Amino acid sequence: MTHKLRVAAFAGAIAMASASATGAEPSGHDAHAWSYEGTTDPSHWGELAPDFFQCGTGKRQSPLDIDGATPAHLAALTFRYRPTRAKVANTGHTIEVRPTSDETLVTSAGSYRLAQFHFHTPSETRFHGKAYPLSAHFVHQDNQGRVVAVVAVMFRMGKPNPQLATLFRTLPRPGAQPVPIPGRLNIAGLLPTSQNYYTFPGSLTTPPCTEDVQWYVMKQPLTVSPQQLAAFRTRYPMNARPVQPLDGREVLSGD
To answer: Annotated active-site positions, please?
Structure first.
């Protein structure tokens, strides 16, 4: 790839990442169709469009298998998530929840707006080679609209989760208009009480696989009931990208 083409592709990747985070579909999206199986599965993403080049050649890709993290004293994360009105969309790749108010995450690097959160089954992040049955990714943007931080929360099998019950009660069809959630959604109810976490530099886990995204993987899992998991899997039996090479990165583990 020439320098000019790579620069143009990188600019396109940034634009598509911003559109994805806000729930907007980038122009020409149908021409860049991708999936989790067949000839458009993750092993082919980097070949499907120039904008997707980092899916194939990036060196800081996500997700990771967390194994052998380095202990560190990490700054606390501050979640300023309030009960808010939100809409649920079916993107064709996952169920995505879009808050209508400004909910924020504060890290040692800055304060970022929650653009959306969505779900993967099984979890994309693995731990010593093992995945959880479900995970949620909370996608945050800076004030330029760039995706800069993702918080990942794991779900193990157990009791029903009240917030998931609200979200999974009505799952729109792919391409349908987003469905407003009745009342206000307690997004903070989808966070664990212990906020110890792992962190590492990574990327979006879907095309265009844009890098320079800091990941915060919460250590304490929440629960999802078999019925709730089955409700999600009626739409998406599997929507997880395989783990990517560490490529010399260090995963830090907080207390």
So the answer is: 93
Task: Kindly provide the b/e burial profile for residues 53-81, where b requires at least 16 CB atoms within 10 angstroms of the residue's own CB.
Answer: bbbeebebbbbbbbeebeeeebeebebeb
Domain-by-domain residue ranges, the chain? 3-253
Phi–psi pair at 121, nearest 5 degrees = -135, 125
Q: How far is the C-alpha of 33 from the C-alpha of 20, rounded, in Å?
A: 14
For residue 154, CA distances in Å to 134, 174, 222 come to: 6, 24, 6
Q: Which CATH number fits domain 3-253: 3.10.200.10, 3.20.20.140, 1.10.10.10, 3.40.190.10?
A: 3.10.200.10
Residues contacting 101, CB < 8 A, separation 6+: 82, 84, 85
Q: Please provide the DSSP assignment of 21-88 as one string.
A: HTTPPPTTGGGG---SSGGGSGGGHHHH-GGGHHHHH-SS-S--EE-SPEE--PPPPEEE---B-EEE
Candidates 196, 228, 204, 220; CA nearest to 61 is: 204
138-197 pLDDT per residue, tens = 999 999 999 999 999 999 999 999 999 888 887 888 888 999 998 899 999 999 999 999
Q: Taking the model in full, what pTM does it have?
A: 0.88
Sequence-distant (6+) residues with CB within 8 A of 166 are 181, 182, 185
